[in-house]
Design a protein that fits this description.
heterodimer, A: mainly alpha, Four Helix Bundle (Hemerythrin (Met), subunit A), 7 helices, about 0% strand, globular, B: mainly alpha, 5 strands, about 65% helix
Chain lengths: ~170, ~350
Amino acid sequence: MELLFFYLVALVAVLSGILVITCKSPINSAISLVMTFFCLAIFYVMLHAPFMAAIQIMVYAGAIIVLIIFVIMLLNLGTAVQARTSHCIAWGSVVGALMMLLAMTFLKGGETTTVQGEITKEVVAQVGHTELIGQAMFTNFLLPFEIASILLLVAIVGAVVLTKREV
Amino acid sequence: MTPELLSLSNNWPLFLGTMILKILVVFVVVILMVAYATWLERKLIGHMQTRLGPMRTGWHGLLQPIADGLKLFFKEDIIPAQASKVPFILAPMMICIPAFITMAVVPFGPDLVINNFIIPQQITDLNVGILYVLAMAGLGIYGIVLAGWASNCKYSLLGGIRSSAQMISYELAAALSIISIFMLSETLSLRKIVELQMEPLWGVFSFLPNWYVFTQPLAFVLFVVTSLAEINRTPFDLPEAESELVSGFCTEYSSMKYALFFMAEYANMIVVSALIATLFLGGWSGPFPGFINILIKIVGFVMFFMWIRATYPRVRYDQLMFMGWKVFLPLALANIVVTGLVVVLLQ
């Protein structure tokens, strides 16, 4: 049952991923990208990571793609003109095949290994996924977390300064 | 034998049956409320402006929503020749669906015990409930933005751009204002938040429930105002400002597609009222049986939103942005800091 559902969602994810790069209109590509993010969120739920799923939809689908669509609308981009792309497709498929090979060697054809970390399915069910992420983020990884937030703050201030020169 | 939570693993026929029943009931009730919210709005605003409102169809116009629905259903469905077809058709669905599926996490009554199984009166109790609500609120933007862009009409485009700017700005303040709620409750599940609010106020006053509106009045006001802006109701209805943009993002829509936008507006209003009731006003707790309490609170807030529409003029665009970024956002942040300090000091 779960496997069937996985294949269904995976099919939708791959199809919408293909649509992202084949759609002529940038808006349609953006919508397909939202669909891909949705499928990813479903995968997170199936991996017992509901917090990641909610954040995935909130941040990527709810904020980033909205901004992308906003920019597309403001610039009023037309549909893409058909360019000669055969050599791009060739290189892309080579890179794609290499990456798939790499992924397959790591996954070993779907075999589960016996290596188990501290945080298992049972621990996640007992403590809660959100709590676990919160604990890790604000104890062991506090410094990286703060550095990331300062980086984002710098980016925001930079964007404001660049767009509004005389304040 | 203590009753256990009904799930797919311990009794799947009963689980599926109750699930489908719950979904059907919630969906039908929300649809009916949407239909009659339109009637209520016309009636209320009518009486506030010393008119009668709809009177002809049925007793005091009670059949008006059905007549309107039938009329819209049989109208010609026009898709402009220059419109982008796929986004144009998708947009009304994309605005309706997030509005309706947010209702899935709203609890509407105490747990029932049938055959030693606990059945919560809520479609699903997500342990990331609030985040789910925020995520769905973020998805509501797509419908309006796509409708504005796909219509290929300047009024629609302006409406769409305005609404995306407005909703992005106000989503931040709305999300930040409810962070202080789960700093107090220490859970993201809406069911547990409602249960926590049934205790006596601050554990001291037994005559008042521990509703978060008493502990977090600022967050309550912020959330009400910002969600009003997020669902594009007056005084924040700039995306469809009639006097300047004809009808904003839904100018080019007709027939059932237009009806879907209309339904989404009222569904959003009901969902936001349900969320305010659940997060700040104790959800289904109260003197009556569970679902009646939350219905009273929802209808109360819906009427409050209509009252606002009859009272306030629309804000100007720069005022809107000023309020969002320079008033509500800092206030929400300050509220989080103060709440955090108090929580730490009380520990």
